């Protein structure tokens, strides 16, 4: 009698709705198109060239004063100088901008107007004597 081979791991594995699919069994990970593999290989080549260039500068016996990392320069530029191309005006940002711009102004107008009205009321009631001041 011939023995039956044991079932494979892929046959035994059944996805659970509570657990995500492991990367090893995800078709997006191992079943890529030739274009996607070519793009990944190109990105890997660019990264390795940049890494080699940086390591050559780092391990140079007579190094320059500043070792420039192009990726770090791009990141710093995108973080600090290039703010507005990524800004999207939405109702929330418009409201927050108006609140931060007009909020303090309206607050101080209310406080000073209220103080002036209270002082005027006390003057009319005779409970407050205005001090004489030239300035």
How would you characterize this protein structure?
There is one protein chain. It contains five helices and no strands. By secondary structure, the chain is an all-alpha fold. The N and C termini lie far apart (116 Å). The protein is elongated and about 115 Å long. It folds into two domains: 19-87, no CATH class; 89-127. Helix content is 59%, strand content 0%. The relative contact order is 0.03. The mean pLDDT is 83. It is found in: Mitochondrion inner membrane. This is NADH dehydrogenase [ubiquinone] 1 beta subcomplex subunit 4.
How do the helices and strands line up, and which of them pair or pack?
Elements: H1 9-12, H2 27-30, H3 34-58, H4 70-80, H5 91-125
Outline:
The protein contains five helices and no strands. With 135 residues, it is mostly helical. It is found in: Mitochondrion inner membrane.
Helix content: 55-70%
Detail the poorly predicted runs: none
Number of domains: 2
Strand content: under 5%
The secondary-structure element order is HHHHH
Query: How many helices does DSSP assign?
Result: 5
Amino- and carboxy-terminal Cα gap? 116 Å
Radius of gyration: 35 Å
On the 0-100 scale, what is the average pLDDT?
A: 83
Morphology call: elongated
> Mind describing the biggest β-sheet?
none
The tally of strands reads 0
- Broad structural category: mainly alpha
Subcellular location: Mitochondrion inner membrane
Pfam family, one: NDUF_B4
Protein name: NADH dehydrogenase [ubiquinone] 1 beta subcomplex subunit 4
InterPro entries: NADH_UbQ_OxRdtase_NDUFB4_su
